[in-house]
User: Fold this.
Amino acid sequence: MRFLHLADLHLGKVLHKQNLLSDQRYILDQILQIADEQQVDAVLIAGDVYQRNTPSAEAMSLFSSFVTALAERKLPCMIISGNHDSAERVAYLAPLAALSGVHISGADTAKIYKQTLHDEYGEIVIHMMPFTTPLQVRAAYPEQADEIQNYNDAIRILMQHLAVDPDKRNIMIAHQFLTGAQVCDSEELAIGGLDNISASLFDAYDYTALGHLHGPQQVTRPEIRYAGSPLKYSFSEVHQHKSVTIVHIKEKGCVSIETVQLKPLREMQVISGSFAELMEMPRCEDYVQLNVTDADPPANAARSLHTVFPNCLQTLFGNADGNSEMFTGTVHAPEKSDFLTLLKEFYAAQHEGAALSEAQTLIVQKVLETLDQKAGAQ
Ligand SMILES: [Mn+2]
Assistant:
């Protein structure tokens, strides 16, 4: 049986104020074409269907038309929710979708859902583990709560409660951060790698279809694999080659893997140069980040550059050495800022410029006060 493995669609993603919906529609059409050309028998989607847990109406319609196109082709599709998704919203109408062969993991994220497919070699059992956290697994298995200190413990215990028949062919679909994998800027990971889990947890599986990390890659062996996002979702990904993974499973133990490259509607690049050099370049429709190296660029530089780079998403000035020390006009000295200011900046960077609400600020202030008191008491 041939599977097409996808992950991290992030439908509805806005990158530096650019809505990527037309790029996403284009790439999903291309993926349907690949499914046809590669004659796949089923599709696995390993989480982060949407960018936000409250997806926009247009993102939801795009996903609806994609899975409908799969159902029209009679391709079974297995979908789990990721850390960006609301498990409940992704699973909306799941029992109805299942009637068309579209199987979506449900609202209970401390659970592994199962679906069995058949081919000439027998049964293939697909295990679907939505993104889950230690907190949720502790709540599901209170008698083992003390054993759960981190993500690795949580996933290990969750998997202990799953019966896997070693004589059958088994696939796991999961959305977690495996130790040793390569990261980039568009993922949301816990600081300090607290969410790492070991690849050895998946030893029993013939193939593990992963989502969460956006660079296509295998972890420890070819059959434990991140499909990667279908599009570049940050400038840290300009050198990645996005692809979908085709997994061919014959009899038990006989798995072959290949990738098919994706060609986006618009490429993404980082271009550095002086204002004069950039203005001399041929017109470029790609999504670009421009690093303008002049010490003193003209006041309307960004607007002028838009005539050459109409899809420029970000212009950085003052990057005279072409690498670090980029700044956008304000000189920032983190060592001179207080914690709350830094936290507000971090929050804005993580939430497309949104500000902390009053209620959130109050919570932070309370935590800081408590910490101060504790520090004073010691
Ligand atoms: Mn993701």
